[in-house]
Specification:
This protein is an alpha/beta fold. The chain has two domains: 176 residues, 3-Layer(aba) Sandwich (Rossmann fold); 129 residues, N-(1-d-carboxylethyl)-l-norvaline Dehydrogenase, domain 2 (Orthogonal Bundle). Helices cover 47% and strands 18% of the residues. It is built from 13 helices and twelve strands. Helix 1 links the parallel strand 1 and strand 2. It is globular.
Length: 312
């Protein structure tokens, strides 16, 4: 199976790199600058699960000629989705399968409209990673997992085949017969974490130590769950156990969106929070009462406005 990983950043570079280590046929679609970095220093992974320096990884750039790939793994930031689509579209053939690992749901709508629902899988990953100043991939936690499946549910032969190729590559792989529920569960959790840590500009432990901090997290979680319920996705007891353990136990956990704010970078506020609000139904959109989710979204949009005006 020929795999094209779009980008060689923290997420795509990590999982793509592990697949290369396992001997899979992986090519990275990168810009010229990243291609030069990989040529000079290799693809470098720093992780508690094992460091790696991968030399001579295969790369292509926009405009290069190549046969269509069997699988396209997409892990860009949501605000770069249009550019990413334009870059990998020439490498999509009649039998190419696209596996996005983005958060939320808006990208699924865009990809299925562009390529057709039959070519797109649902997918999600569980990892915290970043690029350091040396452009090395630094794995920040223990989690390293990918889950994927058919948008319509069930376990197809192609999903099983992809699962077999990815298995044994040094990270956890799960094929799902209800991937959309899993994606909504992650979205609800991530939106709650992002909204709360960005509002308080602090970690979970900091929020829980603040007056009414726990109530704010509870309120955000309840609002996000209500949007999922409105869209036909009910969180079950296993989700409750995981969310309660993570969101209400003091820890240094923050959302990557807060790290973006602290680094004066662009955020995925529209994709993670704004789209969730839009999917909450007309009643919520007209609501002028105290919605914590809307306050958190407005907070981030004000940050973005200041960034655009001052660059700070």
């Amino acid at each position: 199976m020929r795999i094209l990983v779009v980008g060689a950043g923290a997420v795509g570079g990590y999982f793509g790199g592990r697949l290369v280590q396992a001997g899979r046929d992986v090519t990275f679609l990168v810009r010229a600058g990243r291609a030069e970095e990989l040529r000079r220093a290799g693809l470098v992974i720093k992780s508690a699960h094992g460091d790696a320096t991968l030399r001579d990884v295969k790369t292509v750039q926009t405009g290069d000629a190549a046969e269509p790939f069997d699988l396209v793994v997409l892990s860009c930031k949501a605000y770069n989705l249009d550019d990413a689509i334009a870059s990998f579209e020439p490498f999509v053939g009649p039998s190419t399968v696209i596996m996005p690992l983005l958060n939320g749901m808006r990208h699924i709508d865009i990809l299925t409209q562009k390529f057709g629902a039959a070519r797109v899988l649902g997918g999600q990953c569980f990892i915290a990673a970043t690029l350091n100043r040396e452009r090395e991939i630094v794995h920040l936690n223990e989690s390293q997992a990918i889950s994927f499946g058919e948008l319509e549910g069930g376990l197809s032969e192609r999903v099983r085949a992809i699962g077999e190729v990815m298995s044994g590559a040094g990270f956890d792989v799960a094929t799902s017969d209800n991937v959309l529920l899993g994606m909504w569960e992650k979205w609800v959790f991530l939106a709650t974490l992002a909204a709360s840590t960005c509002l308080f500009r602090g970690a979970v432990a900091d929020i829980l130590s603040a007056p009414d901090g726990r109530r704010v997290i509870e309120g955000l979680l309840g609002e996000c769950r209500a949007v999922a319920q409105h869209n036909g996705f009910t969180m079950g007891p296993k989700f409750d156990a995981r969310a309660n353990q993570t969101l209400f136990t003091p820890s240094p956990l923050t959302a990557s969106m807060l790290r973006d704010v602290e680094n004066h970078a662009r955020t995925e506020a529209d994709h993670i929070l704004g789209d969730l609000i839009q999917r909450g139904g007309s009643a919520q959109q007209r609501d002028t009462g105290l919605s914590l989710l809307r306050i958190a979204y407005s907070h981030l949009k004000a940050y973005e406005a200041r960034q655009a005006r001052t660059g700070e």
